[in-house]
């Protein structure tokens, strides 16, 4: 399914708060924090000319976030950044001066961090980022996971010292439970989704993601004409689309938001013209995108700079994982987790339908950007779906 954005706010400027969070100064701030990380390195931008030719587009580039900060996901840029920033803000209040990120290891700062507890709900990747951020600054973290989060993903979070709490139901249930307990105990919720009265922290999480755009634009000779962005609650898609709109202005690319058909809360919201919660029915293999209620901040951005909304099926996601692991021609092999290639799945589906191609303006001169949002964050599940271990896929490009 594909739906063009016909909202009255479409193509209007971002509201002031969102423009501030996702603008150039915000990206500068996020990058400043990133540079103090020992594991910081720019992630690869790969050209896939063989696949571009098959799809009838001029060029196709994939930004591979599977190598980001040792966490295997773009989420590494969000939760950890916010935890570090909130600790330094609290330290500044208590010490009566500005505290820079370079002082993150200072004993006085760490003593303050040790008194702080950060809490979140996660499908897997965001919780790992929050837990890693807390471990970096010496704070405590408590991470809520729902019944669908695999043991392997839970273990990957727990190794950063997080206290893990399992919640019955889906992602939205874990979000509500984390917020409830945090309010009772005075913890700080670091969520990648927003609700009425809770917007600043999700905005900062999104701000962290803008670093991806900055890296991409320094590597491309020409900006993309089309970007296909996967969405769960919508924060990732909104951050990328919002920053592109601010930096490129009228030359911004056409943004297509892609979701699993089984968890398409952004599509349903676009269709209804207002944020809606959809029923939790069948689980999707795209576990990191299994969200049933949009982030209010994310929707506010996407209503303005999202040009189309579409869904993909389970087999589309698995086919992309396999296609990237076994590329054609001289295209590089890429390890993409179950959710990581959903944007590419959307492009493949759009390129194969003449009506959709025409509606989106896809053609031989199109320059398409895809972001592989995660690698094999659950290696066992990856091997099951692709029939190759992720490390063996990477040997093909070594």
From TrEMBL:
User: Domain Tryptophan synthase beta chain-like PALP, which positions?
Assistant: 38-356
The EC number(s) attached to this protein equal 4.3.1.15
Keywords attached to this Swiss-Prot or TrEMBL record, sorted alphabetically, are:
Lyase, Pyridoxal phosphate
Molecular-function GO term, any one? pyridoxal phosphate binding
What is the protein's name according to its record?
Diaminopropionate ammonia-lyase
CDD domains reported in the protein's UniProt record: Trp-synth-beta_II
Q: Which organism is it from?
A: Mesorhizobium tamadayense
PANTHER family, sorted: DIAMINOPROPIONATE AMMONIA-LYASE, PTHR42937
Identify the InterPro entries for this entry.
Answer: DiNH2opropionate_NH3_lyase (IPR010081), TrpB-like_PALP (IPR001926), TrpB-like_PALP_sf (IPR036052)
Q: Which Pfam families match?
A: PALP
Essential cofactor(s): pyridoxal 5'-phosphate
Indicate whether Lyase appears among the record's keywords: yes
Q: Can you tell which superkingdom this protein's organism belongs to? A: Bacteria
Top EC class per UniProt?
Answer: lyase
């Amino acid at each position: 399914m594909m739906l063009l954005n016909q909202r009255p706010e479409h193509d209007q400027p971002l509201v002031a708060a969102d423009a501030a969070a996702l603008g150039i100064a915000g990206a500068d701030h996020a990058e400043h924090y990133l540079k103090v990380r020992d594991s910081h390195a720019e992630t690869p931008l790969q050209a896939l000319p063989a696949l571009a030719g098959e799809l009838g587009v001029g060029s196709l580039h994939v930004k591979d976030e599977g190598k980001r900060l040792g966490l295997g996901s773009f989420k590494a840029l969000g939760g950890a950044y916010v935890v570090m920033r909130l600790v330094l803000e609290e330290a500044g209040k208590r010490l009566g001066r500005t505290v820079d990120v370079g002082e993150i290891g200072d004993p006085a700062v760490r003593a303050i961090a040790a008194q702080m507890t950060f809490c979140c709900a996660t499908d897997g990747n965001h919780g790992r980022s929050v837990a890693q951020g807390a471990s970096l600054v010496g704070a405590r973290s408590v991470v809520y996971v729902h019944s669908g989060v695999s043991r392997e993903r839970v273990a990957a979070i727990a190794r950063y010292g997080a206290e893990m709490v399992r919640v019955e139901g889906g992602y939205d249930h874990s979000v509500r439970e984390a917020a409830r307990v945090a309010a009772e105990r005075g913890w700080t919720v670091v969520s990648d989704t927003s609700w009425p009265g809770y917007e600043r922290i999700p905005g900062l999480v999104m701000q962290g993601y803008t670093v991806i755009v900055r890296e991409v634009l320094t590597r491309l000779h020409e900006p993309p004409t089309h970007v296909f962005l996967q969405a769960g609650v919508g924060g990732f898609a909104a951050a990328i689309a919002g920053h592109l709109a601010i930096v490129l202005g009228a030359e911004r690319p056409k943004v297509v938001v892609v979701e699993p058909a089984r968890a398409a809360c952004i599509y349903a919201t676009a269709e209804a013209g207002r944020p809606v919660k959809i029923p939790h029915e069948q689980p999707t293999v795209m576990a990191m995108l299994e969200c049933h209620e949009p982030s209010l901040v994310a929707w506010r951005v996407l209503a303005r700079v999202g040009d189309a909304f579409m869904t993909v099926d389970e087999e589309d996601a698995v086919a992309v994982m396999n296609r990237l692991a076994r590329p054609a021609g001289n295209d590089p092999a890429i390890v993409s987790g179950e959710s990581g290639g959903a944007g590419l799945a959307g492009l493949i589906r759009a390129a194969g339908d003449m009506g959709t191609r025409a509606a989106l303006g896809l053609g031989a001169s199109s320059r398409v950007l895809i972001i592989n949002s995660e690698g094999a964050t659950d290696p066992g599940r990856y091997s099951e779906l692709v029939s190759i271990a992720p490390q063996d896929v990477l040997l093909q490009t070594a």
